[in-house]
Amino acid sequence: MPGQGLAVDSPSTDRTGDVVVKITPEISKLLNAYSEHKHVQKGYRVQIFLGDRATAEATKRSFLQKNPDIAAYLSWLAPNFRLRVGDLRTRLEAEHLLRDMKVLYPGSYIVPDEIEMPRVD
Predict the structure, then answer these.
(1) Where are the alpha helices (DSSP H) in the chain?
(2) C-alpha distances in angstroms, 23 versus 18, 27, 31, 62?
(3) In this structure, are residues 56 and 49 in contact, taking their beta carbons and an 8 Å threshold?
(4) Along the 121 residues of the chain, how does pLDDT read in single tens digits?
């Protein structure tokens, strides 16, 4: 019978070692330049307020106290301030957030916007 009595050595997968990565100054410079730029992506936010500055800031504070895990962005578009919340990649995610926001902010609506990518630790 073929293969009888033959001992076959298999390579070990339990090897340890060090990996050394050499980065040229040019590559290091490119990596630093890349990390300094803002990388935005098209997505959606839910606009929960449009009006005067004082009310917009108060609404933002109140929102963040109730929803510390959802980002809030205050911007000015003459003559009003607008408060948009969330960094949502899909329309479906935006619809889910909108449903939750309509309870406290009945005039809320979805807007396409440039969103920030989630941080990777």
Answers:
(1) 25-36, 53-66, 91-104
(2) 16, 6, 10, 47
(3) yes
(4) 555 555 555 566 677 888 988 889 998 888 888 877 777 799 999 999 999 999 999 999 999 999 999 999 999 999 999 999 999 999 999 999 999 999 999 999 999 999 987 765 5
What token pair was written down for 20? 């050394």
Q: What are the angstrom distances between the C-alpha of 106 and each of 14, 48, 52, 83, 116? A: 60, 8, 18, 14, 25
Q: Which residues pair with 115 in a beta bridge?
A: 41
Q: Where along the chain do its domains lie?
A: 46-116
Asked if 83 and 8 touch (Cβ cutoff 8 Å), the reply is no
DSSP lists the bridge partners of residue 53 as none
Q: Which residues contact 49 (CB under 8 A, 6 or more apart)?
A: 55, 56, 59, 81, 82, 83, 105
Task: Output the pTM of the full model.
Answer: 0.68
Residue reference for tokens 């005039």? 107
From CA 52, how far away is CA 74, in angstroms rounded? Answer: 11
